[in-house]
Amino acid sequence: MPEKPAHIQVRLRELPQLFNSMDPSPFSERDLDADAEEFILSWARELPVHRAIELIVHLTAAPPPTRGQAVVEEAVRHFFRERAELKHHEFRQLMRRGRHSLVIGLAFLTGSLVLGGLLGGMLDVHNWKTSAGIIKESCTIGGWVAMWRPLEIYLYNWWPLRDEWRLLERLARMKVTLILPAV
User: How far apart are CA 28 and CA 77, in angstroms?
Assistant: First the structure.
């Protein structure tokens, strides 16, 4: 038996409060109000990832909206679908940057190790063993420092972007229910 969706509840006087009043786009393409977006996102982050989400909008003092529930649901889904696409694009850019950084870092690391070996070998021939060791270690450390950024991207930076992208995709599929004031 499917699990019931997790609910995010919003109370508004009237439906237009949910959307950005400065956005001149048609209703179905309008951005959500920034506060409403942040409220929905913060609640959605707290919900279990395996459960569907339902947004319940309680209208407290307004007459019934002129827009139907299906139109409101499509507008909310459209907003989060666009945000998910932007986050996916950002994720792909990060992975591309990671690949470029990895190629550059590996080339620099290889060059540093080769240079350290050559300089260390030349100084070793002249019986400057201490200097040879310092130069070899300095080149090795410098090469590994060049690997810092690609390792940071591939070990840490991609997780939050992927999680945010997945959350936005879930919100783009959520059901939206309007609860009208009692007459």
Answer: 9
pTM for the structure as a whole:
0.80
What are the C-alpha distances in Å from 161 to residues 45, 49, 82, 165, 168? 13, 15, 15, 6, 11
Q: Name the 3-class secondary structure at 25.
A: coil
Buried b (16+ CB within 10 A) or exposed e, 149-174: bbeebeeebeeebeebbebbbbbbeb
Nearest to 53 by CA among 11, 84, 8: 8
Written as one letter, the residue type at 80 is F
pLDDT tens digits, one per residue of 37-51: 999 999 999 999 999
Domain ranges of the chain: 6-87+172-179, 94-162
- Confidence at residue 1, expressed as pLDDT on a 0 to 100 scale: 63
Please tell me the distance from the alpha carbon of residue 130 to that of residue 120, in angstroms, as a whole number. 9
Does 141 score more than 80 pLDDT? yes
Integer Cα distance of 119 and 131 in angstroms: 10
